[in-house]
């Protein structure tokens, strides 16, 4: 089962993520949890999130990039749900050997991420990658959608189709 943890602060105003989610939702074996719709008061049901994660073989962390990082509710989700004794630490083995993929959309194009002294997208991925590895998750290559500000609807639809195909192939690998 693929579990998409979806964190868009304004899901109804989304262009890129909305289409990706719509396409992913048509796949069998995919469950989507839209954090901002589920927890508008930021009161995350940790037990329910952990139960959903337990059922998943592959976890997707999907969100728009915000200030080179994740939206605040997703950060809170990481802090609360990946708890000691469950995701890491003594007895914390719940996520071991599952896989995770970061699906992120950005306003900037690829060159936009070349600014600064230590440029590169891999650097931005590092906190999430390290979090995943610390919890025993396998880190898959991220699915990155750049230049969302300038993409027309046709391009976004094509990207969403590509996303769906990619999830489908990951499902097939997971099912052996
Ligand atoms: C508060 C905020 C911060 C953002 N920070 C970044 C950023 O650091 N880098 C970037 O490329 N885009 C940034 N963006 C642009 C979003 O990533 C972009 O609008 C989003 O990926 C588009 O997806 P959507 O159509 O699903 O909303 C930011 C947007 C907002 C609202």
In short:
The chain has 6 helices and 6 strands, in the order βαβααβαβαββα. By secondary structure, the chain is α/β, with parallel strands linked by helices. Helix 1 (16-24) packs parallel to helix 6.
Topology of this protein?
Elements: E1 2-6, H1 16-24, E2 30-34, H2 35-38, H3 46-55, E3 58-64, H4 72-81, E4 99-105, H5 121-134, E5 138-139, E6 143-145, H6 153-174
Parallel strand pairs: 1-2, 1-3, 3-4, 4-5, 4-6
Helix pairs in contact: 1-6
This protein binds flavin mononucleotide.
Flavin mononucleotide binds at residues 8, 14-18, 64-68, 105-108, 112, 148.
Structure description:
The chain has one domain: Rossmann fold (3-Layer(aba) Sandwich). Strands 1, 2, 3, 4, 5 and 6 form a six-stranded parallel beta sheet that branches. It has helices at residues 16-24, 35-38, 46-55, 72-81, 121-134, 153-174; strands at 2-6, 30-34, 58-64, 99-105, 138-139, 143-145. Helix 1 (16-24) packs parallel to helix 6. It is built from six helices and six strands, in the order E-H-E-H-H-E-H-E-H-E-E-H. Helix 4 links the parallel strand 3 and strand 4 (99-105). The model has no long low-confidence stretch (mean pLDDT 95). The protein is an alpha/beta fold and 176 residues long. The chain binds flavin mononucleotide (FMN).
């Amino acid at each position: 089962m693929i579990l998409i943890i979806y964190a868009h602060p304004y899901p109804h105003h989304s262009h890129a993520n909305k289409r990706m989610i719509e396409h992913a939702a048509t796949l069998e074996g995919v469950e989507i949890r839209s954090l901002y719709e589920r927890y508008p008061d930021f009161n995350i049901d940790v037990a329910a999130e952990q139960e959903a994660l337990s059922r998943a073989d592959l976890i997707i962390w999907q969100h728009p990039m915000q200030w080179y990082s994740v939206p605040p509710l997703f950060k809170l989700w990481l802090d609360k749900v990946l708890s000691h004794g469950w995701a890491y630490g003594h007895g914390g083995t719940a996520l071991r050997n599952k896989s995770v993929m970061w699906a992120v959309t950005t306003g900037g194009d690829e060159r936009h991420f070349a600014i600064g002294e230590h440029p590169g997208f891999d650097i931005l991925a590092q906190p999430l990658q390290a979090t995943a590895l610390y919890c025993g998750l396998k880190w898959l290559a991220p699915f990155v959608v750049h230049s969302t500000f300038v993409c027309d609807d046709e391009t976004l639809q094509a990207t969403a189709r590509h996303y769906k195909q990619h999830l489908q192939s990951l499902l097939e690998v997971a099912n052996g």
